[in-house]
Amino acid sequence: MLTDHPASLSLQLDPIKVLVTGAAGQIAYSLLYSIANGDVFGKDQPIILVLLDIPPMLPVLDGVVMELQDCALPLLREVIPTDKVEVGFKDLDAAILVGSMPRKEGMERKDLLKANVAIFKTQGAALDKYAKKTVKVLVVGNPANTNCLIAAKSAPSIPKENFSCLTRLDHNRARSQVAMRVGVPSDCVKDVVIWGNHSSTQYPDVHHAKVQMQGKEVPVFDAVKDDAWLKGDFITTVQQRGAAVIKARKLSSAMSAAKAICDHMRDIWFGTPEGEFISMGIYSSGNSYGVPDDLIFSFPLTIKNKTWKIVDGLEINDFSRGKMDATAAELVEERDTAISFLSV
Ligand code: NAX
C-alpha cells in the first residue's frame, strides 16, 4: 500500500504534457520550477515538460534540463528538450508559447511582425497536426495578441476559445499599483480590467474595481480619492511598466511575467475565484462591448470548467470608450498587416 507515502497522490493521475517554448530564455527560467512543482496544474498532477527552443540554444537547454533534474521534484516525470516542432507539439495538454523573435537594432515594427507571423504560423500548424484538440494555448511572446491570433488561425481543428494571450501581468501591475496607493495587500483589490492589446495602448480600467478595507468593499475611486491619478499617472504607469523595468534592469520583466503566466494558466485549469474576474486576451466574436470581431483582445473574464465567459454588463463611460477604441484600432491594424504576411 502506498497510502502513507507523500508521493502516492501523484501516482494516481496520468501525467499531463506541457510545452514551454523559448525554454532557454529568461522568462522560462523563472517559470519552469513553478510548473514542475505543481503550482499551476495542481499538487497531485504529474507532468511531462517539453522544452522547445531554436537549435543554437540546445546547449543552454541541456543546462536547464540538468537543473530541473537537480530540483528532484516528485511531480516531474520527464523533461524533453527539443528544437523540432513534431516532437515539441506532440500530444500536448497545455502549450505556453514564450519564445518569439525579439526586436533587433534597426528592425522596423513591420519586419518584427513578419518574423513573428512566420514563427506563430508554424507553431499553430504544429498544434493543429500534433497536439490534443483539447490543448490550452497561452501566447506570451510579443506582439502577444497578434501572435496568438495567427497561431489560432493556423490551427483550424482546435477551437479558437482554447487560445489566449497574456495580459495578466498588466492586470497584476494595475492591482498592485492601487493596493500600494491605498495601503492594503494586493488581494484586497479585485476586478481591475485590462482592455485590448498587451502594448502601450492597453487600457487599465478601474471603474468596476473594488478595495476590501475596514470590513467592506469600497469602489476604487472612493478608496483612492484621487481621480486625477486614476485617470492619469496610474494608467500610464501600468501601460509603460514593461519599459520602466527594462530601463532599470537592462532586461525585460521575467519574475513577474512568470508569476502572471502561472496565475493565468492556473485560472484556466481550476477556474477563477468565486465572485472575482480577471483579464485575459481571447478571441473576440460577437461580444457586447462593441469590440471588433476576429481579434485577440483582452477582456474581463470568469472561468469555470476550463471555459471562459466574458463579464457582460459593465458600464462603459466616454472616457473608457475612447481608450477601448484606440487599443482596438491598433489591434485591427496589426491584424491586417499580419494577415497580409500569412500568405507570403
Ligand atoms: P529571452 O530572449 O530571454 O528568451 C526568448 C527565448 O525564445 C530564447 O531562448 C530564444 O532562443 C527563444 N526563441 C526564439 N524564437 C523561437 C522559436 N521560433 N521557437 C522556440 N523558441 C524560440 O526573452 P524573454 O525575456 O524570456 O521573453 C520572451 C517573450 O515574452 C518576448 O517576446 C517578450 O517580449 C515577451 N513578454 C511578454 C509579456 C506579456 O505580458 N505578454 C511580458 C513579458 C515579456 O516581455
Structure summary:
With 344 residues, this protein is α/β, with parallel strands linked by helices. It contains 13 helices and 14 strands. The longest helix is centred in the C-terminal third of the chain and has 25 residues, at 318-342.
Structure explained in plain terms:
By secondary structure, this protein is an alpha/beta fold. It is built from 13 helices and 14 strands. It has helices at 8-11, 26-36, 58-70, 85-88, 109-130, 144-153, 168-182, 220-224, 227-231, 233-239, 241-249, 255-270, 318-342; strands at residues 16-21, 47-52, 76-82, 94-97, 136-139, 163-165, 189-190, 193-195, 203-205, 210-213, 216-219, 278-283, 296-304, 307-310. The N and C termini lie far apart (60 Å). The mean pLDDT is 95.
Number-wise, the strands total 14
Average pLDDT taken over every residue: 95
Find the structural class using helix and strand composition: alpha/beta
**Domain module count:** 2
Features:
L-2-Hydroxyisocaproate Dehydrogenase, Chain A, domain 2, tricarboxylic acid cycle, oxidoreductase, three-stranded antiparallel beta sheet, six-stranded parallel beta sheet, binds ligand NAX, 344 residues, 2 domains
Present the secondary structure layout.
Elements: H1 8-11, E1 16-21, H2 26-36, E2 47-52, H3 58-70, E3 76-82, H4 85-88, E4 94-97, H5 109-130, E5 136-139, H6 144-153, E6 163-165, H7 168-182, E7 189-190, E8 193-195, E9 203-205, E10 210-213, E11 216-219, H8 220-224, H9 227-231, H10 233-239, H11 241-249, H12 255-270, E12 278-283, E13 296-304, E14 307-310, H13 318-342
Parallel strand pairs: 1-2, 1-4, 2-3, 4-5, 5-6
Antiparallel strand pairs: 7-10, 8-9, 10-11, 12-13, 13-14
Ligand NAX is lined by residues 21-22, 24-27, 52-54, 57, 98-102, 119, 140-142, 144, 166, 169, 198, 242, 252-254, 257.
